[in-house]
UniProtKB/TrEMBL annotation, chains A, B:
Matching CDD domains: TPP_PYR_DXS_TK_like, TPP_TK
Cofactor(s) it depends on: Co(2+); Ca(2+); Mg(2+); Mn(2+)
Gene encoding the protein: tkt
Protein known as: Transketolase
Pfam families named in the record: Transket_pyr, Transketolase_C_1, Transketolase_N
Binding locations of thiamine diphosphate: H79, G128, P129, L130, G167, N196, H270, F443
GO cellular component: cytosol
Keyword Transferase: yes
Biological processes annotated in GO: pentose-phosphate shunt, non-oxidative branch; reductive pentose-phosphate cycle
E.C. designation(s): 2.2.1.1
Length: 668, 668
């Protein structure tokens, strides 16, 4: 168990790697101490594994951290962020000087509490919420195989390495991820499990008796177990894993806080500074006489050599790409720039259907729009969490991704909403594709953790969420979303689209595709909806978030605001208000609150008008007061739904044109 | 694979059981056909297993469906609800006459699309969202062991049986549940896996290669595999499972839609009616000449005998209870009625701390209140998803639940928020305990699916969610809730409490304990908060949802509304407005929106006042327009958080007394 035993066997190489690992330990404990906040235990425990991985295997180039064929490194145990920041400093990332480590967890520093994608170079994904990293990595490893299938091993040929902790493996999402990875034989995925038998509450034996190796083996993984402080054993395991035809788990038996003489092996090193005395004792214990944040030149040079190896690999790759017949196609894919023909085709599609007054469910409209989109570009990659025939997410000729066969464009994600969302994050982060995936809106609940990360990372992931209200009917309240629109709309940096007809659906698809810096959710009906748009427009009215769909002849007496399937109800109510009561009602369709919020106050005022307002949405009121104002009325759900045919439910819950008419007459 | 082979071996008994199973098949296919909606495949596939289970093993009494020591049956594959309704009709549940089956999935019927607890007698838990049933059952099986440890096997001695499908086992939550159950050796839990190799998209081989038996074995389960149409094999497996010292999985190889000659084995039977022709062919094929919804007397009698056996078991149990020295204690536990001493002690606690002006984080205040509560009653059972030292959910002398030792009151749920929430649902549904469990508020995301079911089922489950805002500081945006309060407040039938000091925290705990018909979420700060309450009151001001904490001397010029840690900011702003600008500002503390919404309009008007309003909450604005009105101002978060010490973050995001003062001056 003592790393020094192994090190003595091959002194020249190992002595240097031992120092390299101790540099990580020292930086981690010193930075956490200075911040008086953070997690030293994991970086110290996994320093040996990380050193072997980076010094001997990983191909990354700190000078060009977004080189497409680089290996991906994911710190799934994100609380050990100082491992990553120490590595980045040691490897010479330009944005990670020692001062950044000294500013660990301080306002404005790049060294955030948990690694954040986009916050510092080379952070492949945001981690911290446990289990997300390993699950996102599955998407990266899948994207790599899919891109290789399209452009060849000469230019796409890299590994995805993950460090995961006990927490990652206990979280349910890990089950979805490893099952999918094992099934699809994602053999470029190599996961190191920091098997230190410690979680926050104490020994892991307080809460689990899982045989993780047997578990991963059951999921079709190659599994190995090593002493995580035996560098040669770790290296041999990585070699073996790289040759496997399956994804690999390497269980690394480690001591948390390794090196701290009095605290190693204890949960006390997990999430708190070691304290000055123990840090001094650790320096003695590991033979690290250097001052805080000081790394000797020899150690730094050893680390910088790793970067040189990566640079050479990157340059060799660039030469291969330059002479590859795939060059243009690859660059277009990696740029993920959609050709204008996609949007031309969507415009023609909208024109055709408004003229034909096509009446379909918006989930069906989405399928039809996807047919156009998927024909016009290869960038889109679809899927569903085992609801393909309900979400209508597959289109003709996509081809299915299958174990060992990655040429297709459609992924059967299985009954795994959370795993799907995380995999889509990984696909988007990897580059080369625009992922979309379907489930019922209600099961956004299951995917929440990863959906939030889509938003936090600003990734173009498109969620196709059908069966969006009581309109789904008989499946009942467990399947009927009530609070879900509020949950999604309250999430920052996420566009939530709820289109009212096939034209708006195509517009919302276009807006989602063009939103390269954020995820989108398309919220779609199960039931048929009539054509409400009245004429073709080149501009996208949905792009303003809300717009006046029906303006009455005289001055407005009431404004009816609705989304999705309830716009039909608002239009019917407006017609009856006019015909039966001589009341002038405008109808506003509001497919996207977020985009409406971004419009000018003048535009918003114009759309909302000064007349009293009524909102109609078959969901919770929460949030609607923003638009209806002090004297407004909301017509929607006040509790959970029920099981019955959809028309019965709309009547039962009083979400009808009659109810709107009555509310309008009361209001004015 | 043909069930008739086994049946021929023991003709008298088995012939009858074959008919009993076919009765389920017929009722399921007929009811789905009549509703033109539903899932016939699972009930037909699992009819043989269900018949063996109910006819030979399960102890339930349809005449007294809530008898505490009954076996629990959970249909985790809830889409197969017709299996349960058919069983209930056949067993003679008074609320399930044949007319209910004829009204399957219709408005007002008890035969909802998915089984709903409280909707019909004997439905132990609401299922439909996949994986919830099996995970809730873990809580039931744990509660059984815990109750048995307290009151003895003489009066607590029952099994929890689960039918789960491929979907249940693919969902991540199943991993959390089976790991916990295996670890705790919950040997009264027996799960039948409907191993039919079919999911909605087609064969399960489209998305999984999991060796489920190896997986469950890795989690410490007893595993068996049988032909699910071989009734004797199923019975033998159940016998073996009942003797195991571990939870048991019985993989039942079945044909989905078994009996339908042209469709069995196909995903086409999963979620759609078979059609009249195939139903007629099925009648021929299984030898069931009876008309739709008609069950011959002989078959019905055979089923009713099962109920008689259950009735006898119940009566024997009642005799044992009547003569047990544990009787009183058991009845108090099962009634879950809290003694008044709990609330007396909480009142004294509040009085002491308001007098001492105790300044603590509300998570600490919660721990202190829990100390009082847990001393005064044994009903509470606590736990945390591996954040015990952060959530502060354990109190002195609780004792820990451990494998084979169920005398303790504290559960180390592991890093399993979703599994914890579902287990708490199961504990509450089982009866005998009031469960509470902790995690960070941000990780409500992970538990959403089960939390929604707490609300839908109206169960007294108490979520202790700490680290409730940017106030958690350095961990950064992945750990800082923004949209979570909106997500929870938008959920029907859920009380969300965000107390401002130790007094409000104790009040909110009392309100949560008294809310027997709904779950509660206690949203608590990491950081210290001052005493804001000014004098002891016997009544609970928090019980009104919101109340005036500070009324200015003159007429109000502005009303500041805040919750939790931001009430301190509002109070400081009010003092400065008065002292520096002579502005009369009231401060409203609003710990619970839901309870405030339930007050009279007059009370609400009085609290909110007519002066302009400013709300302060370190979270998303979404929903706040309800309280601030058209001319109000919101001071809070507009995007994700950041990693830094908490005071820096409050300044950075401009959630400060200065910002409130400035907004107030602008507003008036």
């Amino acid at each position: 168990m003592n790393s020094q035993t192994a090190i003595r066997a091959v002194p020249e190489v190992a002595a240097s790697e031992k120092d390299m690992a101790n540099a990580i330990r020292a930086l981690a404990m010193d930075a956490v101490q200075k911040a008086n906040s953070g997690h030293p235990g994991m970086p110290m425990g996994m320093a040996d594994v990380a050193t072997v991985l980076f010094s001997r295997f990983i191909n990354i180039d700190p000078g060009k951290s977004d080189w497409p064929d680089r290996d991906r490194f994911v710190l799934s145990a994100g609380h050990g962020s100082m491992l990553q920041y120490a590595l980045h400093y040691l490897l010479g990332y330009a944005d990670m000087p020692i001062d950044q480590l000294k500013a660990f967890r301080q306002l404005g520093s790049r060294t955030a509490g948990h690694p954040e994608h986009g916050h510092a170079l080379g952070i492949e994904t945001t981690t911290g919420p446990l289990g997300q990293g390993i699950s996102t990595a599955v998407g990266m490893a899948l994207a790599e195989r899919m891109l290789a299938a399209r452009h060849g091993a000469d230019i796409v040929d890299h590994y995805t390495y993950v460090i995961a902790g006990d927490g990652c493996l206990q979280e349910g999402i890990s089950h979805e991820a490893i099952d999918l990875a094992g099934h699809l034989k994602l053999n470029r995925l190599i996961v190191f499990w920091d098997d230190n038998s410690i979680s926050i509450d104490g020994p892991t034996s307080l809460s689990t008796s899982m045989d993780q190796l047997a578990r991963f083996k059951a999921a079709g993984w190659n599994v190995q177990k090593v002493d995580g402080h035996d560098m040669e054993a770790v290296a041999a395991a990585i070699e073996t894993a790289r040759q496997s035809d399956r994804p690999s788990l390497i269980a690394c038996r480690t001591l948390i806080g390794k090196g701290a003489p009095n605290l190693q092996g204890s949960e006390k090193t997990h999430g708190a500074p070691l304290g000055d005395a123990e840090i001094a004792a650790t320096r003695d214990n590991i033979g690290w006489p250097h001052a805080s944040f000081e790394i000797p030149d020899a150690v730094l040079s050893a680390w910088r050599e790793v970067a040189v190896r990566g640079q050479a690999a990157r340059q060799a790759w660039e030469r291969r790409l330059a002479s590859s017949p795939q060059r243009l196609a690859f660059e277009q894919a990696i740029g993920a720039e959609l050709p204008g023909t996609v949007f031309d085709a969507l415009a023609a599609f909208r024109k055709t259907h408004v003229e034909q007054a096509t009446k379909v469910a918006t989930r069906k409209a989405s399928e039809m729009a996807l047919g156009v989109i998927n024909d016009a570009t290869d960038l889109t990659v679809g899927g569903s969490a085992d609801l393909t025939g309900s979400n209508l997410t597959i289109t003709k000729g996509m081809g299915t991704v299958a174990p060992g066969d990655y040429a297709g464009r459609y992924i059967h994600y299985g009954i795994r909403e959370h795993g799907m969302a995380a995999a889509m994050n990984g696909i988007a982060l990897h580059g080369g594709f625009i992922p979309y995936g379907g489930t019922f809106l209600c099961f956004a609940d299951y995917a929440r953790g990863a959906m939030r990360l889509s938003a936090l990372m600003g990734q173009r992931v498109i969620y196709v969420m059908t069966h969006d209200s009581i309109g789904l009917g008989e499946d009942g309240p467990t399947h009927q979303p009530i609070e879900h629109l509020a949950m999604l709309r309250a999430t920052p940096n996420l566009n939530v689209f709820r289109p009212a007809d096939i034209v708006e659906t195509a517009e919302c698809w276009e807006l989602a595709l063009k939103s390269a810096d954020r995820p989108s959710v398309l919220v779609l009906s199960r039931q048929n909806l009539p054509m409400l748009s009245q004429a073709h427009e080149d501009a996208l009215p949905s792009g303003c978030g809300a717009y006046v769909l029906r303006e009455p002849e005289g001055p407005r007496q009431v404004t009816l605001i609705a989304t999705g399937s309830e716009v039909e109800i608002a239009v019917a109510a407006a017609e009856r208000l006019h015909a039966e009561h001589g009341i002038a009602a405008a109808v506003v369709s509001m497919p996207c609150w977020e985009l409406f919020e971004e419009q000018s106050p003048a535009y918003r005022k114009e759309v909302l008008g000064t007349a009293p307002r009524i909102a109609v949405e078959a969901a919770a009121r929460h949030g609607w007061d923003r638009w209806i104002g002090d004297n407004g009325t909301f017509i929607g759900m006040t509790g959970f739904g029920a099981s019955a045919p959809a028309p019965d439910l709309y009547r039962h819950f009083n979400i009808t044109p009659e109810a709107v008419v009555e509310a309008a007459r009361k209001l004015i």
